[in-house]
């Protein structure tokens, strides 16, 4: 994962719980990276260890941490210089989700170490769609649920997410029924 992801985790923890808590989490995770460089590639394991340690220190489940991080990521990337890129990717939640693979392709042109997941929308109705999430990475499904919630906030749209297929239960990929209602 690019360092931007670990930097975002650090920012979320520091802004909500303070520097001291972040230091405890890094210590517990045995991650002795002083400063995460946004454009540096880091082993995914560092991200997983930070989430696991944050879960212990904050007494929240890893699922809760990852969901909160998914929500945080949308606003974080918008304020960390990717706002225009997000704006170009759609004016509504369904439009953005349909353009997500293009967004990743654009980022990947400049940053070849990117290993983006793939998102596909099917069964698009007035207020609902099925979102298919495919990734080489394991265990980030709760983050995707948080990302969709974060998009609901970004587009001032009420969103309800139900997971309809689960890779951990043998499905080929995760699938979600996303019901949305612009406010
Ligand atoms: O891998 C998985 O199975 C799940 C990962 C979900 C994380 N993605 C979230 C995608 C997303 C979903 C909903 C709404 C917004 C989303 O992201 C928008 C986005 C996507 C990528 C970036 C990005 C930009 C630069 C990056 O790397 C840098 C950073 C600074 C300088 C140089 C390169 C890395 C990611 C920024 C915003 C973004 C992403 C972040 C990092 C990577 C990667 O390092 O491979 C791949 C994808």
Observed structural traits:
H-NOX domain; binds the ligand O=C(O)CCCCN(CCc1ccccc1OCc1ccc(-c2ccc(Oc3ccccc3)cc2)cc1)Cc1ccc(C(=O)O)cc1; alpha+beta; 6 helices
Tell me about this structure.
The structure is a single chain. This protein has 183 residues and is of the alpha+beta class. The protein folds into two domains: 3-60; 89-182, Alpha-Beta Complex (H-NOX domain), CATH 3.90.1520.10. It is 55% helix and 16% strand. The protein is built from six helices and four strands. The chain has helices at residues 3-17, 19-29, 44-58, 62-88, 93-110, 141-154, and strands at residues 118-122, 128-134, 157-165, 174-182. A four-stranded antiparallel sheet has the order 1-2-4-3, covered by helices on one side. β1 and β2 (128-134) form a beta hairpin. α1 (3-17) packs across α2 (19-29), α1 runs parallel beside α3 and α3 packs across α4 (62-88). The mean pLDDT is 97. It binds the ligand O=C(O)CCCCN(CCc1ccccc1OCc1ccc(-c2ccc(Oc3ccccc3)cc2)cc1)Cc1ccc(C(=O)O)cc1. The ligand O=C(O)CCCCN(CCc1ccccc1OCc1ccc(-c2ccc(Oc3ccccc3)cc2)cc1)Cc1ccc(C(=O)O)cc1 is lined by residues 1-2, 4-5, 38-39, 74, 77, 82, 100, 103, 107, 111, 114-117, 135, 137, 140, 143, 147, 151.
């Amino acid at each position: 994962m690019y360092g931007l992801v670990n930097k975002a985790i650090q920012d979320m923890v520091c802004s909500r719980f303070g520097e001291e808590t972040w230091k405890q989490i890094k210590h517990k995770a045995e991650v002795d990276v002083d400063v995460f460089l946004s454009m540096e590639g880091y082993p995914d394991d560092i991200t997983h260890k930070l989430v696991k340690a944050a879960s212990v220190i904050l007494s929240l489940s890893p699922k809760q941490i990852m969901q909160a991080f998914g929500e945080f990521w949308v606003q974080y990337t918008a304020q960390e210089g990717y706002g225009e890129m997000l704006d170009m990717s759609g004016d509504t939640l369904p439009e953005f989700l349909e353009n997500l693979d293009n967004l990743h392709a654009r980022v990947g042109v400049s940053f070849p170490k990117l290993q983006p997941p793939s998102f596909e929308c099917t069964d698009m109705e007035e207020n609902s769609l099925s979102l298919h999430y495919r990734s080489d990475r394991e265990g980030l499904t709760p983050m995707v649920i948080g990302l969709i919630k974060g998009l609901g906030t970004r587009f001032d749209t009420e969103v309800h997410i139900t997971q309809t297929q689960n890779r951990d239960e043998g499905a080929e990929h995760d699938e979600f029924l996303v019901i949305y209602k612009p406010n």
